[in-house]
Each structure stands twice: as structure tokens, then as C-alpha cells.
Amino acid sequence: MKQLLLMTTLGLGVIAGPVLAGSGSTEWLSIVGKKLENGDLTVVLKSNGKVKGSGIEGVWEERDGKYCRTLTKPKKFAGTECQTVTLKGNEVTFVNPNGRKSTWTVK
After folding, report:
1. What is the pTM of this model?
2. What's the DSSP call for residue 76?
3. How far apart are CA 18 and CA 75, in angstroms?
4. Each residue of 52-64: pLDDT tens digit?
């Protein structure tokens, strides 16, 4: 269940490397390279565009201020999704297109 929350929240992984262009806010990009924690789950959005975490692999990029990811592992969550991101202090919240939220602590 926690792994499902992580994967649906971060929709982890995307199509290329991080692209720092677009019309939306990109303040959240300060989390790149830092560990994100949600309970006993962890994930890192690497500067090379890869996503690594608790059983999760994929790639990510920024598109028009959104976090877009394409997961490759686990297979049942493979695919692309773009999410709105807000950063407040050391908490980052990802909201998927259906309105589902997931908040992580930035370490």
C-alpha cells in the first residue's frame, strides 16, 4: 500500500532528463538530488533525470512547471504522468491530474 502511494504520488519516472523550461513555477526543482521521505519510503529525483527509490525506477523532467515522470518499475505502475508540485519549507506536495495528493519531507 505504501509503495502504491509512493508510485501514484510521485508518478515516478519520465521521458528524458530534466528540462528547465516552461511557464509554470519551478521553485520545486530545489528538491533535485535530495532524499524525499514519506513514512518508510524514500525517493530521489536525480539531476541526470532518473528516479530511484523504494522499489521504484524511472525518469523525470520538468514540463511547464510540472513534475512529469515515466515509471519503468514496478511494471504495474509503468507509464507517464505530470503532477503539480508545491514546496513549503521542507515539505513538497505532488498533486496528480485526478487531485490525489502526496506530501513528502525533503531531507
Report:
1. 0.75
2. G
3. 22
4. 999 889 999 999 9
Q: Which residues are within 8 A (CB) of 21 and not within 5 positions of it... i.e. 6 or more apart? A: 62
Terminal CA-CA length for the chain: 23
Cα angle 21-34-50, degrees, rounded to a multiple of 5: 60
List Cβ<8 Å contacts ≥24 apart for 94-103: 94/9, 94/10, 94/11, 94/67, 96/8, 96/9, 96/11, 100/8, 100/9, 101/9, 102/5, 102/6, 102/8, 102/9, 102/10, 102/38, 103/38
105 bridge partner residues? 37, 91
Report d(CA 19, CA 73) in Å as an integer: 22
